[in-house]
Structure formats: C-alpha cells, structure tokens
Design brief:
heterodimer; A: mainly beta; 12% helix; disordered N terminus; B: four-stranded mixed sheet
Amino acid sequence: MLSVISKNRSLYLYIQSTALRCYETVIGIFIILLTYPQCTSALDLGVDDWQVHGFASQGYTLTSDYNFFGNSRGDGSLDFTEIGINLSGHLHPNLLLAAQGLYRNTGGSDREDFRLDFANLDYHLSVGEQATAGIRLGRVKNPFGLYNEARDVVWTRPAVLLPQSVYFDSLALRQAMISSDGGILYGRYGAGDHALTAEFLVAEPQDNTGGAAEFLVGPNARGEMGGRPMFIGRMGYEWQEGRFRLMFSAVDLDRDFKSTTPDMPSGNTKTFYPLASAQLNLEAWSFTGEYGRITTRRQGFAPDIQENTSESFYVQAQYRFKSDWSALLRFENFTFDVNDRDGRSNAERTGQPKHNFYTRDLTVGLRWEFQRNWLMATEYHTVWGTALLSPVDNPDLRQRNGPERWDLLTMMISYRF
Amino acid sequence: MAAWLAVGAALMPWPELAYAADTRVFPYSLTKQDIPFTRDELREIFFGRQTLWRDGTPLRVFVLPDQHPLHIRFSKEVLGVYPYQLRSAWDRMIYSGTGTPPALVESLEQMKTLIKETPGAIGYIEK
C-alpha cells in the first residue's frame, strides 16, 4: 500500500487522463469540472490525504470439457486479467472524491477492456454521537451481498473466483451488477458492539454494455435498454465490526427494450433478485453463506409472458492456518428453475441437455500472500452441470450433449500497491 | 450442545491484554480534544468511518503494516478486532470508492515523526 500525497497538478492530470481514457462516459469530466475549483482550496486547507492504489492480476484457467474465461480446454487459457488504478481523497473533511479505471479481460464473458469502474463524490456526516449518514453520487459501485463492490480485485476474494452461483462472472448479467450511474443514500447506527447499516441506490444500470441486453432479452438481440432506473437496497446488522454479520440485499430492475433487430419485437424485462447473507469471522476460521432467488418476467418478446425463478446459494469455510496462508472449501448450487430442479421439463421444452439448467460446484482453494503486496491463489472445482457457462466461450452449449460433470483448475497471481 | 458451547466460547469478547507483555499499546495523537478515547471512538477512527475531529478539523490516521507485531497488538488489545477485519474494511473502501483507509508507515519512528508533523494526526505507540 502506497500513500501518495499529491499536489493539485498531478491530481488534476491524473483525473484528466483517466477521464480521457474513458471517453465513453462523461462522468469523469463532470466530476473534474465540479470539483477542481474546490479541491485547490481544500488541499490548501490541509486535507492532503490523497491516495493512489492499483492492482494487476493475471489468471490461468484449465478446464476439462467446457470453456471458462476463454479457450481453457487443452492447454488452458490466460484470458483472465484484471488491472485497476484508483485515486481517493477528501476535498473537504466530509467530502470524498474517488475514481477507479479498470481493465478486465475474461475471454468471451468480458470483452469491455478498459472502463471507468467508479467515479463518485461522497458527502457524509455524523448524526449525533452514534450515527452517520451520507450520499454518494456519480458512477457508484452497486451495494449487493457480501462481495459485490470490490469483486474484481482478487485481494477481496476468498481465493480465485467468487461463487459463480451468486456472483455471475461468465454470464453477461454481470455488467449490470457491477456499477451504475446515479446515487446512494446510506446510514449507519452503532451502539457499542452492535451496528445497523442501510443503503439505498437509484441509478441507471450499465445494461447497454457487456452483452447485458442480450442476456436479459434473448440471444442476438440488438437494441437499447431504457426506462425506469434500477433500485438496490441493502440492510445489515454487524457485531464487533463484522465478526458476525447478517445482511439482506435486493435488486429491482424494470427495463424496456427497444429492438433494432428485424423480426425481434420490443418488450419489457423485470428482474428481482433478493439475497440473504450471513458471515461468522473467527480468528482462524470464517464461515459464509448466501442465498438468493432471481425472478425474471419478460413481456412482449413472445406471445406469452415468460416468467422464471432461479435459486442460488453457497456455503463456504475459510481457514487461515498461517498468517499469510488460507484454505477454502465451498459448495455452491444454482438451479435455473425452482419448479424444475433436475432440468427435465426445461430440457424437453428446449431440446437442450438437462444439465444446462443447473450447476453444482464443490471447490477447494489455497491463497498465499507470499510477499507483502503479492498474492497467489489457486482453486480446483468439481462441477456438475453447465448452467453458468458463457455461451460466447461455449457456442455449441445449447446443441451439444456434453458431459454433466467437468473440472476446472484456476490460478491467479496479483500485485498491488 | 458441545458444538454450541464451542461456538459460544469462540464468540467471547477478547480479554484485555490476552498474553503477557512488558509493554502496552496506546493510541497516540497530539490532538488532545478527544482524549481519553473510548474503544467505540477508536474503532470509528481506525476503520475509517470518522474523518474529522469533534471541532470539525480533518483527521489523519497512520498505521503500521498488517503483519507488524505492534499493529496486531493494537488491533486486538485496543480495538478488540482481528487485523484481517481492518484489512477487509480498508480494501473495500479502496476498491469501491467509499473511503480512504489510514496511511501506511513503515516503522514506529516514522509514525512518531509523521504524527508530530501532521496536523490532526493519530496513530499508536508502545510504552
């Protein structure tokens, strides 16, 4: 971790260069215009707590029968790169500015390359002795579950991958889950060892990038998503700064799709994703579980209204057996249709194999911080089912009758500052 | 039943000074206004949630590296948390744009110097 006390000029140049590289969004520029005159005086006032941090992670994935993050069969795939640089600091003791640029490549499931991950202003204040409240505006990270906000940084993950049944990385829905353009109201009330937290987001989701529209509407759909902004709420209880933690989050997405594809009608898609989370953090052990259900309702794309509810959960144990080593054991389960757990009727209806409608994954992993700011992690997955695989990396997934059970080995090395 | 007892025992709060040491760890700041600090206040400060002193002046926090014995002792004995709880909260702030974690110093000497030179600074020392 390196703390950089930056001068006005370098800060300005940094934000400017970040914004120029992310020309597809105007938020960075908006923030420069909004804050640059203020930050001159704020830095003169002495809140020179500017910090620049970054990370670079490279993964390798080897699979047996299907592709995960690129062409991972045979010799494996190196299409698993996550590089980010961020800046944060206070313009005023209560006013935080933070922005992160991210380069990410995970084969067919993420070809966005460079993007503005977040760029937000955060105003926070104390309410009495025990409570704080704040508002965060700009491109903000979506508050969802235990891991969503910092999920692209391997340092915040138990080993290499997050449980895919809850945090989809190979489905294009991920783009809409990561960050969005709008605002968050949040609050925290603490009393001794107990604290309650709440966040509420209203924002425009990034569902016109990363193939999210195709995922929500149907394959090969071209057009534009619009309509009502996304709502996300998250409430939590924590004891002793997270030694025990309970959380409930929910995403509510209601989007209209204006088709520009011939023969494809416009329509509306609604997604509701509630997620319950619990975590116990002991000195050497951490136990984590999350359970959620995604209900989608698509209207206008077919003569009937299509409605489906899927189910996601995982249970996970981490064991820190030395100060720089930890081990991971996890079981996760994704069921595409709660009314058809073995996939039989969906298989009959679509002609796809049954195992395309569920995924059960048993994972063992190791994580080693072999030097300060350096990390190596590896995971082996035994997987039953193919519901969470990217159709881009596996173009024949819907036709081919491949095996139900397959294996995945992945490793990652990361440096950060 | 035995399992519940084990969980209960594991959840017991940390006793002060869990092991014998000739020295004690103290929060260290030349800003006298909030002294003596309560554990709750120190948690607010070191977890990065409180960014100003009571009089509204900016607060600057300094910590030693995660593996430094004094950092581990300060986390456990003074804040009553495991060092990895701090690291996970700081990482979340850094990588989601929701706060600034404490600035890292390499040694106790550097900590003392920076606290003397930086207005509104707080860290910790061993006595």
